[in-house]
Specification:
Length: 235
Amino acid sequence: MAATTDRAALARLTAELVECRRCPRLVAWRERVGREKVARFRAERYWARPVPGFGDPDARILLLGLAPAAHGGNRTGRVFTGDASGDFLWPALHAVGLADRPTGTRADDGLTLADAYVAAAVRCAPPANRPTIEERDACAPWLAGELALLTRVRVVVALGGFGWDAGLRVLGGMGHAVRPMPRFGHGAEAAVGPYRLLGSFHPSQQNTFTRRLTPPMLEAVLRRARELAVEPDAA
């Protein structure tokens, strides 16, 4: 079994991450949204900074999303928190035993994860929820740094094609390249060095409202992740 995560090193990485200003377009947008807000959150103070990963430092499963929502993670300071995607994700994590409750509304709401860690490929909210390839690549070192410290992670669940591609690129940069590149799909699986990469449609409203992604579909992927995380060759 891998050693437990160096929590102090992870805290130092997080402190550096939240000060990042590498992408001028994203910095300008996240801060503008934090100033202008929307009516329903007018009284709240927005985080308006890069959003770090969240969860169990000794997790064997890492979930990788796209980017914080402008009025979700960019407001609350926690990934998938305070937006519709999170309202879909947390119940699924709770249903399979990876979260202690089915809701996440604020960074200080007491939600905890067990054996799971959640992060985004891009850590700042992008305009129209569409980061550029250059912004994805500029953000990649943060994910690489987290994976290097999260020594027990063996399963990466990519929430959407963007997360799938970002995960493959980061793992490739860590010396675990795969050729040909495996294709994304819901339920897709790929062996990438010591990791297993799983695909799920992103829990965006576009997917959940149209029922392209349903709770049982997401829960099935998460249960598969749990199975792989405890297999002897993935421990």
